[in-house]
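Reading a protein record of the kind used here takes only a little practice. An example makes this concrete, so a full record is given next.
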Amino acid sequence: MPQSLSPELQRLQKEIEGYAREYSLDFPKVIFEVLDWEEINEVAAYGGYPARYPHWRFGMEYHQLSRSYAYGLSKIYEMVINNEPCYAYLLAGNPTVDQKLVMAHVYGHADFFKHNYSFAHTNRKMIDEMANHAARIRRYMEIYGEDEVEGFLDRCLSIDNLIDYNAPHIRRRRREEPDVDGVSPVNRAQPMRLAAKEYMEEYINPKAALEEEAESLEEERKLEERFPVQPEKDVLSFLIEHAPLANWQRNVLGIIREESYYFAPQGRTKIMNEGWASYWHSRIMTEKALTDGEVIDYADHHSGTVAMHPGRLNPYKLGLELFRDIEERWNTGRHGAEWEACDDYEARKNWDTGAGEGRNKIFQVRAIYNDVTFIDEFLTEEFCHKHKFFAYRYNESTNRYEISDRSFDEIKRALLFQLTNFGHPWIYIRDANYLNRGELVLWHRYEGVPVRQDYAREVLESLYSMWTRPVHLETFDEDKHIVLSYDGEAHTTQER
């Protein structure tokens, strides 16, 4: 069971919170709970939430975390939930220096959750909402059977990334005033009228012929018009609205969609969020909270957090160093047209206008950027050279990863490509009534990387189970236009 904070930890929390507010961090109330290693692994398996719907994947995650901890391969130091109040967990038995580090890190996250625009539309009472979701799904399991509901959950979770990550911030559908039958007057086909003087109008353009032609045009429009009119990025929303699902299935799919949108901002700001929290735990610990006897332990644990490993991007390290670089550049005036135009090495090396705007700038950045815009705007060639960034790829002849490029443009392009849409393919619903047979056509916006066809087939099977009609995916394979299809019995591939 979660333990309340000991008097010593309560004192430390008050101390660290005071330091955080001194640095102008602003956050809701933070509630810390102490868990042992089994409890913290259990909560981590549920994504940080104490109550989730029952599903086998949570058990698999718990088993993996427990084995990793038992073998000394990993250890969870902190978890914090985007909620009001924020809930955070401390691992029982950690030394005092680790508890202080975690508290400082958590206050950085809490400030980021409150102020970054990506989280502006998230549910701040998600702990309660998750518990409600769990209760509803358990109720469905009692009524329809565990196997039936869990099988449908499997299908929902296999497509839970087919949402529009920008939907909370923009309106995609163009709103037009419909006519009485729901059709926009702009899009209504009109019969052709011949030029005629007023007294000859009824002979040149007889009313019956015009009505007959109008009916014919309307029938052609209904056959040719695509549904939806524009490609739909939010596949889950479209299925909820239009798929022939039972009410409980529609409800379960809505739960998965709601949770996907809730977790999406954390994925879109992983580098910034962890970098911001690491920046502030570093400042709070080194400038305020550390005692002389804790310096070595702190340095050891902090260096482990921000260490870079071959073949992997460490969001803690990249985010931390970019925030430090931004602060230094805006403190010294190393930005803007004058700085960009300077090509004197010595002048650039010693450039310092004394602007002192670094602190204000990083607070502004943490509020209005996500990982893609953050990297695109602030990753500079000087930063890449300083931190020895490079692009790599797998060499099949040597059976290992090797450096493929050290150019700044290639490094930045590869990093942005990895972050955009979480590295997932862009999938849209293009036609939900293909050939007027009710078949579903999805379109892959191809950007040079083909979809994994084994994954695509599993997704098509899940979509078929919900749509109950054949489903197709238009994509590319080695620059050949192909269509992957599933009709409920067999998969087929056709070249276009």
Notes: The chain has four domains: 7-116+269-301, 127-163+234-267, 205-233+425-496, 306-420. The beta strands are 30-35, 78-81, 86-91, 391-395, 400-405, 426-434, 439-445, 471-477, 480-486, 491-495.
